[in-house]
Amino acid sequence: MRRDGVVVASAKHERTDDGALYFGRLAVIPEARGQGWAGALVRALREHAHASGLAGLTCLVRADEPGNIALYERLGMVVSGRGERASRTGAILAVVEMRDAPVH
Predict the structure, then answer these.
(1) What is the SS3 assignment for 17?
(2) Torsions phi, psi of 49, nearest 5?
(3) Residue-range domains of the chain with CATH
(4) Its pTM surpasses 0.85
């Protein structure tokens, strides 16, 4: 996402085998944090997923980042699993899987 031509928020994303849109590496530049950019990006990704016929969003969040988990919960996601993943450096990290909450 851009503000005045400058990228302020970004995320990698790809379709999953189970028909969702996975996003990761969501980042907001420091001077733009706290201004709603992460939420706007998640909402845009969700709109893209639905426009593409996908069921919604999924992501992995480090379990030691409760603020990020709470943010995604406020944006309509729920914790759907827990596990561990190896980081790019080989460190083992506890993670939670999050998915869009089912619509009733």
Answers:
(1) coil
(2) -60, -50
(3) 2-100 (3.40.630.30)
(4) yes
